[in-house]
UniProtKB/TrEMBL annotation:
It comes from Wenxinia saemankumensis. The keyword Isomerase applies. Its EC number is 5.1.3.9. Keywords: Carbohydrate metabolism, Isomerase. This is N-acylglucosamine-6-phosphate 2-epimerase. It holds the Pfam family NanE. Pathway: Amino-sugar metabolism; N-acetylneuraminate degradation; D-fructose 6-phosphate from N-acetylneuraminate: step 3/5. GO terms for molecular function: N-acylglucosamine-6-phosphate 2-epimerase activity.
């Protein structure tokens, strides 16, 4: 469903961001579609539904439980799967790292497939990626490389992208691919697609980068 060699734009904004909310995220998604993106990554039922109405692209939906305090917060349970699926996500992402959590990730993966959606496993290491692919994940994203205790400082992880691609995994490069050159390099190393978020859809962080450089 997610086209090969394409750009997936992550349209997300946390509650403290002025662009938080489905109206703004749907507008971001429309702009990304007009620019040639092949899919949109979105968080939460309201944003997913608004984006589904706004664009004709596949929506990779997730539901973040940021208020739980648990480091495993990306679609961590069956209720989160139901929220994303009911909102219209065609692909649902989940945390498939080997970190402990209340609901085993394989159970969440099974619920995604039972809902008739494709699965997108967010992983941080090669072993996690292989386990997710062997469990039936349609896509394996390097999303969490650099965001777990064992992988601090490894974002973007081009070596991980290449290793998974060589192993025959449909790997999507995500996490720190914040320039066109890095995105192109990920594709050259075998990525099925590349996800870019902050560098495209977070004007506040983009502005901060310019301000720091000028200071």
């Amino acid at each position: 469903m997610i086209l090969r060699s394409g750009l997936i734009v992550s349209a997300q904004a946390r509650a403290d961001n002025p662009l938080h909310g489905p109206v703004h995220m749907a507008a971001m998604a429309r702009a990304a579609e007009q620019a040639g993106a092949v899919a949109i990554r979105a968080n939460g039922g309201a944003d997913i539904a608004a984006i589904r109405d706004a664009v004709g692209l596949p929506v990779l939906g997730i539901v973040k439980r940021l208020d739980s305090g648990d480091p495993v917060y990306i679609t961590p349970d069956l209720a989160a799967v139901e929220e994303a699926a009911s909102a219209g996500a065609q692909v649902i992402g989940l945390d498939a790292t080997d970190r402990p959590r209340a609901t085993p990730w394989r159970e969440v993966l099974g619920a995604i497939h039972a809902a008739g959606c494709e699965s997108f496993a967010d992983i941080s290491t090669f072993d996690e990626g292989m386990a997710a692919a062997e469990a039936g994940a349609a896509y394996v994203g390097t999303t969490l490389a650099g965001h777990t205790e064992a992988t601090r400082g490894r974002s973007p992880d081009l070596a991980l992208v290449e290793r998974l691609a060589r192993a025959g995994v449909r790997v999507v490069a995500e996490g720190g691919f914040d320039t066109p050159a890095l995105a192109a390099e990920a594709m050259a190393r075998g990525a099925h697609a590349v996800v870019v978020g902050t560098a495209i859809t977070n004007p506040r962080e983009i502005t901060r980068g310019f301000v720091r450089a000028l200071a």
